[in-house]
Every structure is written in structure tokens, then in C-alpha cells.
Amino acid sequence: MLVSLTSTTPVATDLGHLLHKHPDRVRSVDVGFGRAHVFYPEATPQRCTATTYVEVDPFGRTRHRQHRRAQGLEPYLNDRPYAASSMLSVALGRLFRTALNGTCEARPELVGQSLDLEVGLPVVPVRGGQQLLRRLFEPLGYDVDCSSIALDTEFPAWGDSRHVSARLAGRQTVRSALEHLYVLLPVLDDNKHYWIGPDEVDKLLSRGGDWLGSHPESDLIARRYLRLPDYTREALARLADTGEDSDLLDTQRDAAEQATEAPLRLGEQRLEAVLEVVRSVGAGSVLDLGCGEGRLLERLIVEPAVTRAVGVDVSVGALNRAEKRLRLENMSERRRERVQLLQGALTYTDSRLRGFDVATVVEAVEHLDPDRLDVFAEVVFGHVSASTVVLTTPNREYNQNFEQLDSRGLRHEDHRFEWTRAEFEAWAGGMAERFGYSVEISAVGPVDPVCGPPTQMAVFSR
Ligand code: SAH
Predict the structure, then answer these.
(1) What pLDDT is stored for residue 57 in this prediction?
(2) How far is CA 382 from CA 166, 223, 288, 353, 379, in A?
(3) With 60 as the cut, is the pLDDT of residue 396 above it?
(4) Which of 101, 165, 189, 321 could bridge across to 85 with cysteines, CB 3.0–4.6 Å?
(5) Is 346 near ligand 1, meaning CB less than 6 Å away?
(6) Alpha carbon distance, N-terminus to C-terminus of the chain
């Protein structure tokens, strides 16, 4: 995928200073889903073009078995390598961070200077067609010249694709032009490839704070960029607050501060939700089935009420990592007695697994082959038989909001299945009835109005 930025204001090669990329060199960086390159096909005092080219790693996209299974050929045949999508926006953010922050050490006087700029987007996916492209860029001072791209020139009857070829021309600072692209490319595409977390609001405000508030399409931009209504409302409220320059500065400072504070990640939210259940039933002993590296155990052992926490996992490697994380060898004798790691399987009865107040199964059930689920249920509900069982698992419907490339390190690779909300509800309800529990299902993480939450949690009690 390509985007080019051309300056025709002499001395046009100043563009190199502004972008912090020398016109004589090619610069390349890794961007998680592939590599991004910047180079200058032309660099004269009259006209200078910096082209950003992103190569998407096709194996990165097809690595996940679950994804392949769920979506047929889509992981192999898609527009991502060619179309200027949210991935390009991420690449621009990575390559031109200094320029986006308005810094140019060599020539600080250039930063505020408006130049005659042209932006070339040979293939940009647009949900809403050329009209939308105009509605987004014209109010920002661009002349928009665009043409549609046929789905297949051999079959004209198939009509146009959702892709457009566009050229935008306007007098802009380089910083603004980059900000416009950074925010609006994902908005045009409306198919963000990555997980949308709370820090997205800050990102939007830090890149759009100067122009988004007065943009006639600010609602649509915030809605598509952030996708979740709560975030959209927050962003619009914060934008509305930025009537005066000092307010704007405050907002940007807040945004910067919040961005440095680690945003609450889904993994944390999940553990916190599980801990809440442990606390609410006043559990003294907890069995963590499929404990992995011991993230939950680490928190359980500092819970005042918990006097016994046992983690079980089939993987020796995971148990070794858990041992390190918990610093078992440096633990005082008294603490040491309260925590234990066992190698074992979720599909075998084992007398060491009995006699706990709460059993937890966090993001582990989807690692079992579906034909082992009945045995697993016999073990967890029949044999372990804790009075409370907490089980979390992904909600498959939510996946469309995720970065399909797994750049956040989510382990999809070993998932044998993922349930929709209805499938999970049906399974959990069936198990509750069979083993004499009542069950309550709740959401963990930001709830998408259509797809639901990223994680679903069932609490079985008896
Ligand atoms: N609960 C942890 C780990 C989740 S990853 C957390 O939330 O961080 C799933 C874990 O389940 C892995 O550590 C894997 O080794 C374990 N697992 C997969 N199949 C298993 C089985 N049949 N028996 C026991 N553990 C299993």
C-alpha cells in the first residue's frame, strides 16, 4: 500500500527536514504486521515527493488457525496489502512521529509553514464512496480529485470496487497533512485492524485536537475512529471543551498523561473480574485450572482472604515461568505453603484437585478439542466440584474489532474454537443444569453494541 506526499513549494526538498527522512536514503521500519519504507521518487527544489510503502507480511495475517477456519479464504485473499487502510495509518504514526509531534530540530521555523502539498492515494478503501472522501477532506482545505476503481476490468458488469484512487491538493503544514491522514484513513476504511482500547480516545484527540472540533463531520469521524459509543461520547465531549486555546492545551496535556499511564488492558480487566468473584464469595481456597504463567495466582496470593492457591497446567514450560513470576524460591516458608503449582490436565480426574471453594478456568477452555469438552465438564463440575466455578473465554463475535495480525501478542494460535455469545450461553446453561449449578454470564471489557464484549465470563454457583 502506498501514500505519497509531494511539496511544490520551493525549496521543496525542505520536506526531508520536516519528515526527518533524508531524500537520498530509503528508511525502513518494522511495524508489527510488516515493514514500512519511505523513499523519494523525486527530490528537486521545485518538487519533492516522499512515498511511504508498506509491505504487509502475509504469513503474519494467516498465522492464526482460528482466523483461517472462521473466515475461509479471506486471510489469503484480501485488499490489505494494497489498500491504504488503518495499517497505513499505523505506519505513518510510527515513521513520522517526530513530524506529527511538530518537532523539527534542524529547521524549527519550517514546522508552522504551510506548503503546497499533494497527497496521492492510489488505492484507498472507502465505505461511503467518493462523496465521503470529499466530505472528509474538502472542509480541511483540500481539492479532492478522485476516481473509482473497477472491481475487475475484465468483468465491467461487476461494477466498481469499494476502492477509490484519490489525489488531494491543499496548502497545509506537513504536520496537519499527516494528522489528517493518520485520523481519516481508518475512518474511510471503517474496518480498523487493531484492538480498540481506551487510549484510542487520547490518540484521536492528540492528532485531531486542532481541527476535529470544527469539522462538520466530527461526529462521524469520532464514531468510526473509536467504534464504541462510550469512547465516541467521551471524545466529542472533550472536543467540545476545547473552545479556547488554554483548554485545548489542558486537554492535550491530559491526553499525554493518560497515554503514559498504562491503559487498562483486557487481560487485566479479565483478572480483575475473576478476582471480584473470588472476593465476593469470600473464598479461602482457589484452584486455577490452566493457570499458564501464573498471572492470576500472583494476584490471588496477595488477597487477604485466600489462604490456599493452587495452579494446574499441562505445560511444564508455563509452570516454570509461573514459578519465576511468583518467585517461589524466595518466598517465606509461610507464604510458600499457601501456593502450589501442579502439572496436570483439565481432562483427567485427580484427587489433588478436590476441596476448593472456587475453581477458575481463565481463557483455557478454548484450548481443548471440542470432543474433550464433555470430559472437561465431568472433571471441573463433577470431580473438582467447587461451590463456585468461574470460566472466561473469548467472544468470537467480537473478533472483527481485533487486529487480525495479533500484534498485541494474543495467543490465537492454539485456540481450538471460540464461542459466540449464544453458543457459550447454551453450553454454560447445559452444564449448569447437568451438574446442579446456577449460572450467570457477564461481559468483560468494552461492550460493542453489535458484537458484545471481547471476553465472556460465566460464574457457576451452588
Ligand atoms: N489462565 C492463564 C493461561 C491461559 S492460556 C491466563 O489467563 O493467563 C491456556 C493455558 O491452558 C495454557 O497455559 C495451556 O498450557 C493450558 N492448557 C491447555 N490445554 C490444557 C489441558 N488439557 N490441561 C491443562 N492445561 C491446559
Answers:
(1) 73
(2) 62, 47, 16, 11, 6
(3) yes
(4) 189
(5) yes
(6) 56
